[in-house]
Amino acid sequence: MTSFRNDRTGETINVDATREALLARFGETAKQDNWLWFWLARHFERHAPAAPETRDMIAFLADSFVLAAGMGLECPRIRVFFEGKRYKIYLSRKGTLCFKSGFVEAGTMKPVGDEEYVGCLWGGKFIASRDRTMLPTEGAFMAQLAADPVSFLAKCSRDMDRCCYCWSSLEDKRSKDVGYGPVCAVRWGLPWGVSYNEKVPSFAELWANSHVNDKRNIRMLCEDIRREPRDELTWMALGDALADAGYRNRPSMPKKAIMLPAV
Ligand SMILES: [Zn+2]
Q1: Distance between Cα 171 and ligand 1 center (Å)
Q2: Is the pLDDT of residue 79 over 70?
């Protein structure tokens, strides 16, 4: 049993995990005696059974960007509000998945000040910016994103009544319930309605089950595409795999050589 304290609030958490075990779940963001320990411990305590490895979360986010690019998005990005801050997840020119954050006016979604670079996902890790110290709320954002990217982003979208993928306001009841609209559901392979989900698994579900699928491994195909973005055959294989799973729209190699994640 290890004890972790939030120096700001005084709250303490006891978890059945060593610092090493927590670190293994979250890359190497946390250093000795860093405030982030508390958040890692809280995250571990609340989500331990369901938490995917950080490396998995990074690969999944990257592959979601691959899918969105294959579905025709030239510049896929995610924008959300969380606990009074705004966040942007986007692709850098180097192919890293980057995070920026900024403040919003209290109680509104009105941006205040400039966005600041928080860090990026690369090499299976989160690499925090060297020029600034990550805020506790940013650590909480990363931890929740790592625990379950799709649900967390959907929850943020519902909270702000806007789709985090395209920034449109959520119009009908169905979109408000799930946290995104039908167009983004197709582009990002998100679950869309109960009857649809019975027939067509979400991209996250296909991705998670890739290792047991002995036909075409979605995960490996995406990895191949990230390594060789201009190999049309791999794109076709990915399209086939998704069509087999019931997808009506299939991704294909973007016409322009656009940026893909190389994380
Ligand atoms: Zn949308």
Answers
A1: 10
A2: yes
